[in-house]
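Justification of computing resources. Each target in the renewal requires a structure prediction run like the one illustrated here; the chain below, 337 residues long, is used simply to show the kind of job we budget for.
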Amino acid sequence: MCVLGIETSCDETGVAVYDTRRGLLAHALHSQVALHAEYGGVVPELASRDHVRRVLPLVRQVMGEAGVSGDDLDGVAFTAGPGLLGALLVGASVARSMAWGWGVPAVAVHHMEGHLLAPLLEEPAPAFPFVALLVSGGHTMLVDVRGLGRYRILGESLDDAAGEAFDKTAKLLGLGYPGGPALARLAEQGDPGRFRFPRPMTDRPGLAFSFSGLKTRALTTLRDGSRDARLDADVARAFEDAVVDTLVIKCRRAMQAVGARRLVVAGGVGANRRLRAALAAMAAEEGGQVFYPRIEFCTDNGAMIALAGALRLAAGAQCGLEIPARARWSIDELAPV
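Resulting structure tokens:
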């Protein structure tokens, strides 16, 4: 099963070709970070227009690198949501048009399903069942994964996603956009003992998250102190430690609640070095194992969409005549395949 995958849910245009027998054949990604940097965040209309410019050249590039033509494809997969509606429609329209022209099925893929399946691109790949931590700028959730399409949300953020809180706190520190990686670099220079921020919602049962208060705590700490480079680094470290500890505590609870020994971590925040080290230590204590996609596949990419599309197509899933694109779409609404 050979599938072309297209990802255009936000500010990255990703294209890939995945074959169920030969694995990932080629992939390419264009990031819009430079385009949106001056605005401090993603501008939806600019994102959509840039996808229009980039997607077809990337398709030609990737198919050339993979050595495949339309005649070699069994399907075309695309991100149908959640995400920015205009951006989603670019990928959906292009993918459906190419699928129709080549006479192959089109497959709509849930963006978060792509992320939680991304570690299957690696060796060793995690086997079902597992608990997935999906942690990015737009989402923070724990999912009980029993098989393809068999997902149950165990807990999610009630306000800011972890990555969103990273970006907003980085902006308070004057670090620019995207702020998460910059904040993590600054935190390396910070004193872990100077400030201790709360670990939100860990003092009560449950698997829900809340990160907006950490941003406020960072703001008040900066205002109350004598602002200098040392204070900024120490605040960054306190913030990062609080987010990491909270995620680790909740992941441990989730694994214990469902009796899982495998934890999958995906999404942009999953690239954070301190989070990876802390989760590895926790999993070892629980007698489990943590699985990640490679760093380049932690953020949005076409490879995870091509993989998810191939798995769904092999299970018999494909689109109807409509062009599905949903800005909001819970992963537990997916039907098992």
